[in-house]
Amino acid sequence: MINRTVSDAAQALEGVKSGMTLMLGGFGLSGIPENSISQLVKLGVKDLTCISNNAGVDDFGLGLLLQGKQIKKMISSYVGENDEFERQMLSGELEVDLIPQGTLAERCRAAQAGIPAFYTPAGYGTEVAEGKEERVFNGKPHILEHAFKADFAMVKAWKGDTAGNLIFKGTARNFNPVMCGAAAITVAEVEELVPSGELDPNQIHIPGIFVKRIFQGVNYEKRIEQRTVRTREDVR
Length: 236
Prior knowledge:
This protein is of the alpha/beta class and about 240 residues long. It has 7 helices and 11 strands. Strands 1, 2, 3, 4, 8, 9, 10 and 11 form an 8-stranded mixed beta sheet that branches. It has a 3-stranded antiparallel beta sheet with strand order 5-7-6. This is CoA transferase subunit A.
């Protein structure tokens, strides 16, 4: 029986080297691979190109890698919660490629499906389209976008089994699924790891064929970027 489990993040990230291109799942701080990011900090790898919806916050998520000057280039769609990111971008220390959110997701999904490129209307007529091939379909202009090429994809799921099958929960079911199988090696960390066969096949979001290594994560903080609460009086 297939068993893709490894003991921890250290074993899961064996082979990660400086200069690599990494995909990191999550939406905001929801569903980010916290254990994998912590291991990247410990490894001290540099000159990374990171593909992620966001850049974390100053002291959490990818913000930890930014603090250590480990990221050379960020490919993202939203980066508004990180002061250090802003400082490095404005000073020229950090290369930044801002991409429409749907295009970012589709470039991941295209890599997952083995599709080399696709046309999209998103970004036409803006700086996003500079230097890209343009074509008209049904009277509407589109630009050519290429699938990402990454060395590792690091994702976080709610539950998984030893064969690598994954179930995501809530907002974490966003960029995580499309990054699975979109890189040479996909590492999945999960909150709960169960034996193969225990997951309901009808509930599985990503089959194990897309996952190379899986481990049960520990000590998840699950931070909230902007917590908004109301008083009891406001609710009435």
